[in-house]
Amino acid sequence: MRLAAFALTAKAYELAKTFQRSLDNPMTVYVSAKVAPPTVAAETGAGIKTFAKLEEAVAETFTAYDGLVFIMAAGIVVRTIAPLLQDKLQDPAVVVFDERGQHGISLLSGHIGGANVLTQQLCQAVGASPVITTATDVNQCQAPDALAAKLCLRPWPKVRIRTLNSAVLEGQEVCWRIDKTLPHSVFYKRQLEQAGQTAELCVTSQCLQFCAEEKDRPWAVILSEPNLPALPELPQNVLCLTPRRLIAGVGCRRGTPAALVMGALDMACRMIGRDRSFIDALASTVVKRHEAGILFAADSLARPVHFYDHAQLQAMIARYQLEESDFVKENIGIGNVCEAAAYCCVGEAGGRLALRKTKFEKVTVALVWEK
After folding, report:
1. Mind listing the pLDDT tens digit for each residue in 323-358?
2. How many Cβ atoms from other residues are within 10 Å of residue 170's Cβ?
3. Which pTM does this prediction carry?
4. 3.40.50.11220, 3.40.50.880, 3.30.420.10, 3.40.50.620: which CATH number matches 3-133?
């Protein structure tokens, strides 16, 4: 999860730097040029940037990051982000803190965007009180869309999220069905059962078939995107969820053995609680299109590998404001390979960073979930 923090005052700037030091996730701090100390110019390489106008800075970064943390009055934040909002499936997590770090408010995208979890993490880091207002969390209920976010599943249709959450608040139990032909159906079943849910595996043709006594229950059904029904055919009490694609952006030194590439992919996936079988595609720069280690890894995984030219990678660097390495840029002509390539692969829909660029022996890997 890539994060940005915005500070309007000197106290807010200090709190933002505390957040930056406390988190494993990469965070860029944006501070108003009016209050930025003279040392900021020397800190730009450490993820510190200045801005002249908050509205312009937020407009430029709103879709570039997975989560935005504002250290200022909530009213300022509401008025600033209002023109930029799309919907709960696309908007980033938005969290607001007062400059003294006493309270943290999950303002937007609490479940799917991860703002509730982010709020709790940040509050724990500075000893603040988390303010969570989503009804299911307040009533200590397990929301289906919150579970979907943890499992990296895409809910459809959006309107049914409210239907199922309302049912949960009324005390009804959501029953889960999983298409047993999905590659990781057993993983989803195990995770749901560990979360206290009732889940069953079904053949594809039975996933959306319900007997008379089942028709009034709320259902969450995990199946592949090609098997989604037409909306008019979907029962009113059913929410469908489809697995998001996981893209592995890969960079390596020339002549790196395939064993090191595979080992790096293994370790990267374990760092996000998955194994390499979850990878749906590999991505890299055209400079590496003949790299045997990357090609062999794709063949071993039986996954496609996509190579992108400098112009395509640079477009993603600009869109997501990715950090660039001077060393890499000097050697191959582009300053960010694995993250930029992964974002290229997810396309216009965008992606959510699962693992920032991580260095292994002769290999770098970044993992991105498709939105």
Report:
1. 998 888 888 899 999 999 999 999 988 999 999 999
2. 9
3. 0.91
4. 3.40.50.11220
